[in-house]
């Protein structure tokens, strides 16, 4: 029975080694959120279990849907983004998938930016294509392309606030207005933007997703993802368009999610009770704890990384071996004025540059350059404490066609950098030494 004293002497060894010394529910008074490393949660009665399963009362049933450590992370991130609720999942990829499935998974159509991270393009054009969910890709800087792509079946517009790897800055307000004029939500992936630099909800976005693997944790130890409901989108305004929220849900005794949970909470309830429950991309308590630990220093890390990245970008822009630097903090950059508007506290620390020279031997020159770097590490990740380098055309964006890469602003000569926490002088010296080799 729940709350009963843990077995001590009366039970045999095997029973004691499983149950002794711990009473479920006892407070620990630890100053740091504890890792609740348990797969399941004990109910006080069968009635409580039945109520929880039917969504008649809030609570935790099973680790696939929720856990106390994950809830601390969800509440913290919802707060940091100025949102109303959040769902933490196993990876950024899972966060994008469950968010878009919840909005467009029932016969809906998605309009997404050409400039998305390559793994997201893989997800949308292949796996969503396999599921019969159509996606139209548009140039995020072309408002008429967004408008023209919207059909009666469209359920969501999707883009990155600061795109990986070229660091194009999304005109969030413009695209949000286009979405709202069509009665649709705007979902943004703000992984590169980070809540320390940009809060998309202040500019009209309705949902924010993050790969928590990156800046939110900041140490490169743990995968994680999160979607935050910013509480702004009213699924009740066009109820016929959103039956997943406004019609009785047979799984939960014909409960109507919109009536039971309301604006700002219904989306998270659907994501958890259906998509995370059914597909199982659950965040482990340990990874949630690691991300919480990293989150404590988010603004300090991002400020330093942002400053270092701008110094590096300015340095590279003057270097004869560099053809172009794609950093919106540079006044010559096409997205500079958008960066001033949306990123007043500092630009991204993930950005790219193109090596000078012909395309035909670009791969060879890039390899020479990357392979001699010593401080920058060749890693398929961003937002780490370590500075990272990658070659999008042969790594993260290698599955895209040359035309898709060109639409995202990536060439064979493009090198992506993620500035870490090392001394910027060492980072610049490392790049100079490698550039001298090409
Ligand atoms: N979104 C962006 C912008 C990313 O850069 C990534 C990964 O690089 C993802 C989503 C996917 O995140 P994860 O690797 O945590 O699944």
In short:
This protein has 438 residues and is of the alpha/beta class. It is 38% helix and 13% strand. The protein has 2 domains: 46-294, Type I PLP-dependent aspartate aminotransferase-like (Major domain) (Aspartate Aminotransferase, domain 2, 3-Layer(aba) Sandwich); 298-436, Aspartate Aminotransferase, domain 1.
Report on the structure:
This protein has two domains: about 45-295, Aspartate Aminotransferase, domain 2, CATH 3.40.640.10; about 300-435, Alpha-Beta Complex (Aspartate Aminotransferase, domain 1), CATH 3.90.1150. The protein has a seven-stranded mixed β-sheet with strand order 1-7-6-5-4-2-3, sandwiched between helices. It has a five-stranded mixed β-sheet with strand order 8-9-12-11-10, with helices on one face. β4, α7 and β5 (about 185-190) form a beta-alpha-beta unit. It has 17 helices and twelve strands. The chain has helices spanning about 15-20, 45-55, 70-80, 90-105, 120-130, 145-150, 170-180, 195, 245, 255-260, 265-280, 285-295, 300-315, 335-340, 360-370, 400-405, 425-435, and strands spanning about 85-90, 110-115, 135-140, 155-160, 185-190, 205-210, 225-230, 320-325, 350-355, 375-380, 390, 415-420. The chain is of the alpha/beta class. The chain binds pyridoxal-5'-phosphate (PLP). Pyridoxal-5'-phosphate binds near residues 91, 117, 160 and 223. The site of pyridoxal-5'-phosphate (PLP) has 17 residues, from α4 and α5.
